[in-house]
Amino acid sequence: QVQLVESGGGLVQSGESLRLSCTASGFALDSTPMSWVRQAPGKGLEWDSSINSRGHVKQYANFTTGRFTVSRNIAENMLYLQMDSLKPEDTAVYYCDKGWSVLTRTGRGTQVTVSS
Description:
mainly beta, 6-stranded mixed β-sheet, 4-stranded antiparallel β-sheet, 10 strands, 50% strand
């Protein structure tokens, strides 16, 4: 049974950092590409970043402008999203999901709120 559990969100001030975690179970992270997506209040899902199954190719949405870094720990089957220089417009619920450049969600997500 595939499960994805996101964590690490919180309330931070503009300019601060957060590292989100995604705990995967029921499959191996190195068997599939993975993505991070987010959903801001009142808006649809927005793709943030993807990492391929071998972990050596990463792609980011333009709005991340070098502030976000996706990584993973295969031994722990964990996916991460390091977010630096956060802005109020990054406020959203963040989700991880299987696939490359997807607009889907499986878990409950983790709330990130950035105050100005």
